Input
Amino acid sequence: MAAAESVFLRARGRTLTAFRPDAEYQWKGPFYFIQGADPQFGLIKAWAQGDTNNGDDEWGEEIKLTEQAVQAVNKLNPKPKFFVLCGDLVHGMPGTRWKKNQEQDLKNVLKNTDQDIPLVFVSGNHDIGNTPSRETIDDYCQNWGDDYFSFWVGGVFFLVLNSQLYFDSSKCPELRQAQDAWLDEQLAVAAKQKCKHIIVFQHIPLFLSQPDEDDDYFNLEKSVRQQIMEKFHKAGIRAVFSGHYHRNAGGSYKGLEMVVSSAIGCQLGKDTHGLRVVVVTEEKVVHRYYSLTDLGSRGIEKELLDMLAKQK
Output
């Protein structure tokens, strides 16, 4: 496997090969990571033209924005532990005309990420389809690594989930069952290891602002949502980070924080193209959303840097 290609395939065997678990079980002091979402190559033109099915034949603007994101991340000092992209990597749905070209252009940008900052990929609805199948998920895994997996960083347990299996698993119910069983096993492991925090990444938010809000294209259906929220609460999960909404949003459920981050790519609200800086301390998880311009020109503000400097 070519070195450039391997950076996209670090999620294998349901873990992230960039981090060795035995070296990462212990708390070693505060650290931070970068969360991005929805570079979604092709949506800006498609949205502007009002043709989200076939209007995604240009993505030059998204290339520039993602280059800007990579440059901003590469300049950060100290370096983030990793850079996670929470789904909708490109706009083209499985089997559509431009998807492979969009994916290749995205890889050409992302391969310039500092080699000491592992890339973590989360599957979105445009990556595997609104109603995924075994075939669309297999294709995603060949390009971007496993669709769900876990990893440890500095005493914190991270779970990457395939939220499309919660949205509509009608074509592959056995894959939803497999993820559910795996998740229960992982939460049991986390309980035994006594990790500092558990943090989840998924594309579709559980909810946008209120745990009992109505069903919507941008959240998970109420009955499914309630089951997951309760499971996460009982497991002591601290936060869920997602994308999908192309706006910043969020709320909480019994101490579980739902963080919805706006897009690197097309904005559907009043937010700017941006990235979220997430600082993990022994007691808490603190995050700020930065525009690509601000993060690239000014870096992380002193208040967050001071949190990283403590306890070292």
